[in-house]
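Replying to the earlier thread about multi-chain prediction with a worked example.

Input:
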Amino acid sequence: MSAPSHPDYEVVIGLETHVHMKTRTKLFCACELVYGDEPNHHTCPTCLALPGALPVLNEQAVDFALRAALATHCTVHPHSIFARKNYFYPDLPKGYQISQFEEPYCTGGFVEIETEDGPKKIRLTRIHMEEDAGKSVHDEGGGGSRVDLNRSGTPLMEIVTEPDLRSADEAEAYLKKLQSILRYLDVSEVDLEHGHFRCDVNVSLRRHGAEEYGTRAELKNLNSFKFIMEAIAAEIERQADVLDSGGTVQQCTLRYHPKTRTTSIMRRIERARAALPELPEAKRERFAAEYGLGERDVATLTAARPLADFFEAATREHGDGKAVSKWLLRDVTRVLNDRDLEFGDARVKFEPAALAKLIGLVDAGKLTASVAGDLLPEVVDGADPATLMAERGLEAVSDTGVLEEAVAAVLAENAAMVERIRGGEDKLLNALMGQVMKRTKGKADPGAVREILARKVTE
Amino acid sequence: MVEPLGTLSELRAELDDGGATSRGLVERALERAGEVGERLGVFRHLRGEAALAEADAADARRAAGETRGPLDGIPVVVKDNFSQQGEPTGCASKILEGYVSPYDAGAVEGLGRAGAIIVGRTNMDEFAMGSSNENSAYGPVRNPWDGERVPGGSSGGSAVAVAAGIVPVAFGSDTGGSIRQPASHCGVVGMKPTYGRVSRYGLVAFASSLDAHSAADAAVALAAVAGHDPRDSTSLPEPVPDYAAGLDGDVSGLTIGLPREYFVEEGVDPDVLARVREGVEVLQAAGAKVREVTLPHTEYAIAAYYLIATAEASSNLARFDGVRYGHRAEGATQLRELYERSRSEGFGAEVKRRILLGTYVLSSGYYDAYYKKALQVRTLLRRDFEAAFRECDVLATPTTPAPAFKLGENTRDPLRMYMADVYTVAAPIAGIPGISVPCGFAHGLPVGLQLLGPPLGEGTLLRAADAYQRETQHHEARPPEGGA
Amino acid sequence: MSRISREEVARIAQLARLSLSEDEADAMAADLDTILGYVQKLQALDTEGVEPTAHVLPMATPFRADEPRPSLPPEAALRNAPESQGSAFVVPPVMDGEDEG
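Result:
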């Protein structure tokens, strides 16, 4: 067992995660989803809840939701119901939210996380589709609130776990895993800053060894990993204090009012299954087997889908996965990190074929690894390695005549150093090496240079 | 005083043979609306100049030989719950005071495509909740046959606009009988199509409907607004038949079912029942077969209907909160106060009553006993009709149990008011179409014969109603001009 | 016999965001009591195992393609607003403890 997160009580956590889907339009109307625009610039009679306006369901949202269900091993139901959850709030223009809270389209899956004690399955109660509310911005000065309905009607998936998590760390591992799965499926950007991802956390405590769950408290609308972790820690403390002092934890609940609508989705399930991308676990196994890569490299390459896809595409072009992996994880990653970019960012113009070509030029002895490394930033920016090489005359020099000449010139300029080498200071050979490389602008084949140097020094 | 306008077919003929212009018809309609309409409380809003400009455009089309069809250039009215871009869309409620719709309802677009000129918006029971048109926040509509009586509701203004000769065709909505019942009380044809046949997009009600003088006119009007609208998820994709072409006067192959439960003597005016029986005999004489059928769950229809309708209304009306549009209470300093005061000031008594009833039946603890039970009873009622339509093509019943009652007669007793819908509520519960046709008079007041058909049976209903009107003159009776 | 008390009517009115005067609450309680008495007749029907009909015509939910169409111009969206600031609707402040109940 991992260390208990509280000495006296076992912590029981369940998460309800709301994720914005990556559709172009809203769940029930054709308004474009745009983040950060002026208030109410993306609204229509439906998402403003004008009299007489009606909802029509976005098919892409349904397909995205099905992908998520299949990837988390949920059972998809042929019929689900969109019902109304009634409450009054200014950012909820209809006075009800359309949600599948009562009969969701899928139930009973799981997400596997890594813990100190090995892998653990976190069971999912269900996933359901619903629409997001708008935003109310409260005036600091105590005046009114400003209501912006651009977000009103954004398609959400609500992913609900069983109370299977036993610590804040497990909650974090689950959320990160969920984030990676949804990004892999390409159904959500899962961008916390843009509010793509919000979490309601149910926390309860029970004495170690107790069978019954304690009364839970729900922490709503947490939108960063850090805040979620802090909130869980604070809530554990609060409840422990309440229980220690002999009190009871109060539960809060919402009122539900349903009105039913049904939807038939059998055909879509099959289509979604066919379109389902390979998930990280499967990909890890395959990468190890197919490309003969080490565990760490596999883990890094498969952590995010854009990098994994790039790797595979470059390997198809080049042929040697190990070489591609080495370049990607060392040199390319460094270039991207310097610029604060990552694969998947629209600003990255790098084509897998360009990397394959660059490595190919090194393999063929046309570019030295050093020159190739220097060219990489430009290649990442979209330049063609062969063109750069030709334009700048960077082709590796292996013509022994040229090299002999360069070595002779360097030796002539450094007679004193040559004497010391002959006297046994072998290490100085590297300095001469460097000068030859400099003279040939790094294009010289280092092996050939070393060989000529060694010979000439002893001559 | 301007003469009453004729029927749609008459006005069409006048336009086509050059005897009238659309501008002339619209001017007459507007003038009559200002006189008779004003006296009877028919309108919430008249479009005046905008309508005249559209009439000129229709005249220009006709002069160029580009007439769009039988409704082109014809003045019509819509009920105040049809959204129309740039026009007040008030549902006769104070809570929508000042609201101007930024978009057109699907049915309004259909009328625009057909070239019909919407000259005004008719008074109604607030949010279509009522059976007498006394629940308008702007005063009742009066029956043109007797100004002391109600026209029925909730589409009272639309029925009266046709009955009083202001326009030949009026559009309304029919939720629990809101168009057939006023049509019956006012002596006009009222038709409620199958649920989903006419777009509900932009309509602040459950179902659209229309009034006209004859089944033949109703057939033309229905064709203009029927059809699939992708913005309404319940809109039916089936193509719209040529209703007018199907009116061949032949009912020889038709079997009319008389539901036993609708012909019990108890609670029905005997004169009304007599007129309806005579109407059925006319169709029988024209060749239709008549047989008795049974709709065993009829007595539960009103209870089920009001539970379902109020539950849905309480949720549908939650959007009226004084935030984005409509009435907002002055000086509210907190959000909750804003909601409670805006809604309490904006909604009338019947709307509040239904919101409360609906909230109650949906609340935890009562949901299964009331709302779910009502939805189950709806299944039984639907099955009743399915079984009946295996034995007959249309059902014939009275539209209302009695002719128009007096203003104020039922306002103190909401339940008694609900009972006025006894014959009309089952159709919306089952989603089936119905039509009310004038079939004579009882106590000097019009009586309606109701025909109900299976889903998408509009063509059959119109054919039967038209055949009936070929044999009778009841629909040609007009209210006395001075009577109102 | 009373099926619904005045207190219960007051509670429902709160849920529905309606404020009723004492007289109104009395009248509503009486009306609702009559209506609820009438609808009791449904209880006489055995509906065991009967599927509820939520929609009168059985049809699969139609879908809309995920293609944007123009939204309303902001001035049209705001045109009917009783109070607005910039392009936002304005409401009085939400008091502490006032939430989605």
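The two ends of chain A are 70 Å apart (CA to CA).

Feel free to reuse this layout for your own posts.
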